[in-house]
Amino acid sequence: CTFVMCQYWSTSMFAKEVAGTANALVGGWGNLGGGVTQLVMGSVLFPLFKQGMSPEMAWRTVSIVPACVGFLTGYTIMKISDDCPKGNYKEMKQNGIMNEVSAAASFRDGALNFNTWLLFIQYGCCFGVELTMNNAAASYFKETFDLSTESAAAIASIFGWMNLFARGLGGFTSDKLNAKMGMRGRLIVQTITLAVEGVMVLVFAQTKSLGLAIFVLVIFSTMVQAAEGST
């Protein structure tokens, strides 16, 4: 409920020379919520909830907590925030500061731009992977290494915690190479991070040692977040 607005706001507020770093940093700290949620839900709230009900029911019930937090956060942002640094779109259109553009026309222009689909694929290969890992990592560690739900959730949260620095690092590196090489520099950063990410996910899938799996997970996650930041 906040990620897309956050990315738009940071892009609007910072110059293009540092927009990559700003965008990646705030996006990374936002995505850090994925790791925090894994840890809080699986290792803190789940043990409390299952004291009064079956583990299966407890896991389903505990999901109400982030849903409520998300709803309240979205409602708060809707009430207290502006659409952009200059104010709300409705007021800007009324005052002639912003032109009226239909959503359909805007969507059509974006959909017909070939670069949009290239970026769609690239971002799907990193952010899509993160969403998948946030959903499946705890179950994977629990089933593959025969861990408790609490332990598996704590380990899975490591993937999200890499957002503390990795996404910002990707954006920072992209900005630096952009200053020296232009758009080609940004493409080089993203190509390298996506390639290493692809190798790491293959290695991770074949790793049978818990300690080694955690080590590979850290590298894998770092590359995923850095690729997102470079986007």
Automatic annotation (TrEMBL):
GO cellular component entries: membrane
Chief localisation class: membrane
Topological relation to the membrane, as annotated: Multi-pass membrane protein
Record-level Gene Ontology MF annotations: nitrate transmembrane transporter activity
Protein name (Swiss-Prot/TrEMBL): NRT2
Family assignment from sequence similarity: Belongs to the major facilitator superfamily. Nitrate/nitrite porter (TC 2.A.1.8) family.
Taxonomic placement: Eukaryota, Sar, Stramenopiles, Ochrophyta, Bacillariophyta
Ranges that cross the membrane: 29-49, 61-78, 147-166, 187-204, 210-227
Organism: Chaetoceros muelleri
